[in-house]
Every structure is written in structure tokens, then in C-alpha cells.
Amino acid sequence: MSTTPGRVFLSRIVGQAVFDPAGDQVGKLRDVVVAVRSAKQRPRVLGIVVEVLGRRRVFLPITRVTSVNSGQIITTGVLNVRRFEQRRTETLAIHELFDRTVTLPDGTSATVYDLAMEQDSRRDWHISDIAVQAGGKRFGRRGAQQVLEWDEVKGLGGEEAGQGATHLLATMDEMRPADLANALRDLNPKRRMEVVAELDDERLADVLEEMPEKDQVEILGVLDPDRAADVLEEMNPDDAADLLGELSPQGAEHLLGLMQPEDAEDVRRLLKYEERTAGGMMTTEPVVLPPDATLAEALARLREPEIIPALAAMIYVCRSPLETPTGRFLGVVHFQALLREPPSTLVGAIMDNDIDWPRPDASLEHVANLLAAYNLVALPVVDENAHLLGAVTIDDVLDHLLPEGWREQDDAAQTESEVVTHG
């Protein structure tokens, strides 16, 4: 599939940077807004959805776009930063038309995997072509791909029950979980759940952790209970505990009963603590090593991709058992210390333990003060017998210090209705 002069396939530009005339990036293209009028008339392109700083999505009329290609999108330099709200007559070409089932001229079915827009002699943009694939996930073996004109296919008007999301998700592969969570918030409930249905459990768990609590509860509530339990197992135990804490006691207990016993046990321990305490904020899965482990072994553990940066900033040194609650907690080794000594050095030789670490009932304010006073991004939580129970990371503290509903708020710095860049 090639892009001819004047024709641009949407899969080539989604996620591309949007620049002002001076070459400064103002955001990324996330979708193309079109008006679908009839099966015969090519949809007119109304504008593009641009994700600007703070993950706010705004609308930019196509008349303010001076150049569109697979490398960059150039604007006139004027950007209205009011949050985009889709009108009833508007269609999001990528989020709503990708994966749509259509009927081909020969009467067979196919799936839309791309769309092309083209500029006419009057410099107006329209959706001109549809790239489809016969067969596919819902029709058995994948068939041939072909590009047809808009009026050659049927089935793009109205909504489709049970629409897939495979090709839409392909455009989101590189998105961070927080950005994908933001994208799901902007979809209508039907389309959101179609996307959720095709996300694998690990990816969905990462996305749920970045969503407001009410959205988490809504999505978890429509999942099959067995799948909901699988997703909870993939979440960090502290995030899973926070989510289950929003459910009724009966609903939470039902899902805990479906989880693997060891995963459920970690979550149950966290549910015992008040939310705004060290115990309520901690994760039960810090990086724990015995004192006779070498720095080389410690660095190898920290390289594991599933360990978040805040947890990778510190090694927690304990006696056996090494699963929380551990044996006696001996101290911590900061990541920088691992880089300063020979790889054969034992972690027990360079650990620090000169801070009065918090107990699980320590307040949010006390934990925040410790992080600030000692310039830390994580710290251990220990019990009265010096057993390591878990670790609190800076992201969890900020989550509780920021105003309620902060994930749903736009970037506070963007308070003007229009931003005029260089141009």
C-alpha cells in the first residue's frame, strides 16, 4: 500500500508530531475528525485531534493545517486548547472506523484496517479510499488486502455491534499506559469496551493503574469475573488493593477468591491498612536481596523491565525469607552506590540503615516528609520487629497528595482558550 501525492493514509500520520511554522512541536496527532454524510458521498475532513501538553486533546480545524505527510504535520501556529468534545455529527476516523466490518462489491465481508484522505482542487480534504482485509480474526483465515474507493463498500454508516479493535490497537502500540488510559477516556462506552476486550491482561492492568477510580470500577464491573481476577493479578498489589477498596465488600471478596492465592494474600494484607498510611500506599514487591548478594546480582535484578524506576532506585537488604514480610530488615543500597563499587562487592558491605523508617500506620504526611528530607524516591516500611513489609514510592505519595480527581484535570498551565505559537 503506497501513498500517492495528495493522498495520505491515516495509519502513517497517527502519532506524528504537530509543529508550528517555526518548527516547535505543539503536540501529536491522535485522530482525524470527519463528517460521514452518506454511503455515496466521500466524508469531508473537518480537522484533526491533537494531544498537547498535559495529555489534553484539542481540535484543530483542517483549514489551519498547512502540510500533512508521514513525517510531520505543520499548522498555522494558532491552537485552541479547549478540550475536544465530539459532536453528534462527527466521526473519529481512526477510533471509530478502523476494524469496521464492511461488505465488498462482490458481497463478501472484510475488515477496515486503514483509510486515506485526499485533497481536492479546492484544497478541501475528504476520505477517499478504504484499505480492507478479507477474512481476518472474525472471518477465519486472513485474506487478501485491497484498497477501494469510499463508495465501493457498504457498512460504514451508523454503529456496528461487536466491532473489533485489532487495527485500532496497532496504532496505539507505542503509547505509554497513561496516554492509552487518556485515549480510552475519550471514547464512547461501547467503543471503550471493545478496545478493552482486545487488550491483553498485562496491558489492561497497566492502563487501569493510570485511570481515575470511577473508570477503573466501571471497566472492572463489565469484565467477566474470571478475567477481572486475572487483570487484578497483573496489577501492582497496592493498585489492586486500591481498586478493590472501591468495590462492595462482597464484590471484592468474590474477586479475591478467584485470584491466585499468593496474589490474593498480598492484596488482602494491604486492604487491612488505612488508605492514607504507609501500609495503605506500599507495594509488597520491592527488590529484596540477602546481604551476601553481589552488586552484579543487584544490578541484574534492577534491569528487569517490569520493575518501575522508583522501585529500581533502591535495593532492600534482608535476612531470609526474602518475600514480604521478610526476615530481619538490614538496610538499603541506593542505585548510585551500586555503580561506584566493584561488581564483586557484597550489598551487605555498602548498605545504609541510619534512618528511622516508617511503620505501616505512619501517616501520609510523615512519609512525604521523609522522602523530602532525605531526597528519596522510595523508602521501606517495616514493622515493630524490623521485618520489611513493603516499600512506598514517590508516585504513590503524589497520587494521594494531589487533589482528588487530578487524573481527569487538564494541564493547569493551559488556562487560555487559545495558544498562539510562533507564526
From TrEMBL:
The CBS domain is annotated at 282-350, 351-408
Keyword Repressor tagged: no
Keyword list (alphabetical) reads: CBS domain, Cell projection, Cilium, Flagellum
Matching Gene3D superfamilies, A to Z?
Answer: CBS-domain, MgtE N-terminal domain-like
Pfam families in the cross-refs: CBS, MgtE_N, PRC, SH3_actinomycetes
Stated name of the protein? Flagellar motility protein MotE (MotC chaperone)/sporulation protein YlmC with PRC-barrel domain
